[in-house]
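User: Reviewer 2 asked us to show a designed sequence for the structure in our supplementary figure. I'm pasting the structure tokens here. Could you produce the per-position amino acids so we can include them in the response letter?
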């Protein structure tokens, strides 16, 4: 396994707890972060896709950052923050908010409202983002998740951005679920950027091919198993089965349903509109599937 760049390790793509009225439940947020960090995660990622980040405004982000810092978590070591906005000004506000808190890294998605944009246009947007951050710019992780943004980051664009900002762009999170793309990305960037895999089904192979870790929604559930994959490149058939089952549903509500099952706390089922919780029947099915598949593999 490649050791030419510092190993990023495992970051939990943290689910965000909400009360029934839609407000952020800070009292459940910080214990969940403590649990994740205590069970194998090197960091947590706030405001990502699994965390419903685009549905959380600046006030809510401030509340979460304040609660996490107040709980004693070391931001510089243990917290990555999502930057997901189409407006450059909004993206800069989110980034500066995280940098003010001394976050470990910024997970930056492309502007997503306009579709069919060129690599040149995306290069200009990311360049302006980094340039306007000025001397504060550091540890930017590019976020490739075209199933959500509908704005893919081509290998050529990633190479171009890495060459232009080699000390600032430090990683790329690949959440496309396209192993062919992942292989090309690993081949192109294994000696330059930390390639982080979002699809846990191919994580072990990616690590063996030079991947440096993951920002993973499944880390809300089984961080210890993921840590073994990342640090040993060891396959995990049970985890693959679980991910295949989760992908039959809207992913964020499904992950929250499993967190609710594991904790016995139905409050975790709450999502923000326009998302909806999965049905009680589907929640029960996922919980039973989780219990069965891991019991079978442990037997």
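Assistant: Here is a per-position design you can include in the supplement:
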């Amino acid at each position: 396994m490649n050791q030419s760049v510092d190993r990023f390790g495992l970051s939990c793509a943290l689910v965000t707890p909400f009360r029934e009225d839609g407000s952020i439940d800070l009292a459940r947020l910080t214990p969940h972060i403590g649990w994740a960090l205590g069970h194998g995660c090197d960091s947590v990622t706030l405001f990502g896709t699994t965390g419903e980040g685009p549905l959380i405004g600046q006030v809510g982000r401030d509340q979460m950052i304040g609660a996490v810092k107040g709980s004693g978590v070391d931001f510089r070591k243990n917290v990555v923050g999502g930057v997901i906005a189409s407006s450059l000004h909004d993206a800069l506000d989110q980034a500066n908010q995280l940098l003010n808190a001394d976050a470990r890294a910024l997970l930056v998605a492309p502007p997503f409202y306009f579709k069919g944009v060129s690599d040149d246009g995306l290069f200009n947007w990311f360049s302006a983002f980094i340039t306007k951050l000025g001397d504060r710019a550091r540890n930017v992780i590019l976020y490739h998740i075209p199933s959500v943004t509908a704005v893919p980051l081509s290998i050529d664009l990633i190479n171009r951005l890495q060459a232009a900002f080699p000390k600032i762009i430090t990683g790329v999170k690949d959440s496309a679920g396209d192993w062919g793309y992942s292989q090309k990305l690993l081949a192109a960037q294994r000696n330059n950027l930390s390639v982080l895999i979002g699809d846990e089904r191919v994580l072990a192979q990616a690590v063996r091919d030079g991947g440096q870790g993951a920002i993973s929604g499944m880390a809300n559930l089984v961080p210890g198993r993921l840590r073994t994959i990342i640090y040993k490149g060891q396959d995990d058939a049970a985890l693959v089965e679980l991910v295949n089952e989760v992908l039959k549903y809207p992913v964020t509500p499904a992950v929250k349903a499993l967190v609710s099952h594991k904790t016995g706390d139905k409050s975790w089922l709450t999502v923000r509109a326009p998302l909806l919780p999965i049905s009680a029947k589907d929640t029960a099915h996922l919980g039973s599937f989780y219990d069965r598949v891991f019991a079978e593999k442990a037997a």
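For the response letter, you might also mention the following. Residues 9-235 form a domain with the TIM Barrel fold (CATH 3.20.20.70). The mean pLDDT is 95.
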